[in-house]
Amino acid sequence: MTLSKNIETILGKASWIRKMFEEGARLKAEHGADKVFDFSLGNPNVPPPAAFRATLAHIVSGLQGNDHGYMPNTGYPDTCSAVAAQISGDQGVALDGKDIIMTCGAAGGLNIILKAVLNPGEEVLTPTPCFVEYGFYAGNHGGVLKTVPTREDFSLDLTAIEQAITAKTRVVLINSPNNPTGQIYSESDLKRLGEVLKRKSEEYGAVIYLVADEPYRKIVYDDVAVPGVFPCYRESIVASSYSKEISIPGERLGFVALHPQAQHHDSLYAGMALANRILGFVNAPALMQRVVAALKDAAVDVSAYARKRALLCDGLAACGYDFVTPPGAFYLFPKAPGGDDVAFARTLQEELILAVPGSGFFGPGHFRLAFCVDDDTIINAMPGFKRAMERVG
Fold it and tell me: Which of 83, 95, 163, 369 could disulfide-link 39, Cβ–Cβ 3.0 to 4.6 Å?
C-alpha cells in the first residue's frame, strides 16, 4: 500500500464538487463547452474591482530590495492593522493588529484555529448543510466533525445545537452567508447561540469556541446585513478570505480575527501563529498582503451576482422547482424533484447540466447550483431544467 489509510479513505469519498467538475470536463470535450452548463464549482466569475488592479500595478512598480522576503508569521504589522480596522466595523468591536493573523485563505485560517484548539477526539459541531471539507479540516488535527440539522429554511435550530453539545465539543463552526444554501444567520439567533455556548462552557468547565467562516460576508442582496459574532459571544474567532469579495481565490489570501476580549487571547493568538508556521503556510502571500492593506472597502460588483440570482430563481420557479431564495453568497439549494438528489443530479447531467447533489454537503434531498457563471449559461440551461423536471414528473 502506497497511501495512508486516511488518505485512501478520503479519496474513496472524493468530493461531489470535484467529481462533477471532472465529469464536466469530459462532457465539454465530448459535446463542446458551449453545450454544457456547469453549475458545479463556486469559482467567482465577476472580475476584481478596478481598485484592486490599480493598487496591484502601483505596488508591483514600486517593489525593491527584500520586498519578497519573510515577515512575521502573523503577517505584515501594517496589513494586520488595516484589516483590524475593517473588521472592527464589520463586527462592531474594536480590534487592533494584535488580534489579526494573515493566512493562506479562509481554509488556512480554519486549519490554524483547529490546530491550536483541538485535542484528539474532540468535536467540531457544525449546522448542516455545510461545506464538505470541514470534516477533513477537523480530521487534520485529530478532531471529529459532528453535524446538526438546520430548520426547513436553513436557519439555525438552537434547540438541536444545544442538545448536540457534549463534554467533547470544543468548537461550534458556522458559515454565514452559507455554502451551499446562501442563508444568513440572524442576529437574534447568534445572540441565543452565544448564550448557549456560554452556559455549556460553564457546565463542562472548558471554553467552547464559536468559529465563524465568513468568506461570503460581502456577497449579499436586498440590503441585507450580515450580523457580527463578536458582540454575541466573547469566545469567538472569525476566519475569512478575499477570494470571493474581490474575486482573487487563486491568490490564497485570508485572515483570522480573534475577539480582543477572549479569555485566553494571548496564548490562543500565539498558538495560531505557531500553527501558521508548522503547518507549512509560514506566512500569507507577501504581495497580496500589501495590496489589501492599501485597499479601502473594495469589493466586487455584487449587482452582477444579484442579476444572475434573479435569472436563475425566476427561471427555476417558472419550471416548478422549490427553493429558498438565498440572501447571500452565490449558491442556490433547491429541493430535488423526486427526493433523490443523486438520481436527479444524474438526470440533469443527461441534459448536460452539472449540479452537485446535496448529499455532498450533508443536505440530502437537495442539489446545489453555483450561479457565479455567465448569464448565457443560466439562460441557455433553462430548457434542460424544464425537461428534467418533466421527466421526474
Answer: 369
Q: Identity (one letter) of the amino acid at 135?
A: G
- Cα–Cα distance, 281 to 318 (Å, whole number): 47
CB distance 331 to 180 below 8 Å: yes
Q: Which helix (H) or strand (E) holds 357?
A: strand 356-357
CATH of domain 51-294: 3.40.640.10
Place of cell 502506497: 2
Contact 381, 353 (CB under 8 A): yes
Which residue is listed with cell 427553493?
A: 323
Fold of 5-48+301-392: Aspartate Aminotransferase, domain 1 (3.90.1150)
Question: pTM of the predicted model, to two decimals?
Answer: 0.95
What three-state secondary structure class fits 317?
A: helix
Phi-psi region of 289 (alpha: psi -120 to 50; beta: other; left: phi over 0): alpha
- Is the bond preceding residue 177 a cis peptide, omega within 30 degrees? yes
In the chain, where the domains are located: 5-48+301-392, 51-294
Q: Report pLDDT for 6.
A: 82
Q: What is the pLDDT of residues 294-335, one digit of tens each?
A: 998 889 999 999 999 999 999 999 999 999 999 999 999 999
φ, ψ of residue 331 to 5 degrees: the values are -130, 150
| C-alpha cell of residue 367 | 442539489
Q: How many CB atoms lie within 10 A of CB 346?
A: 13
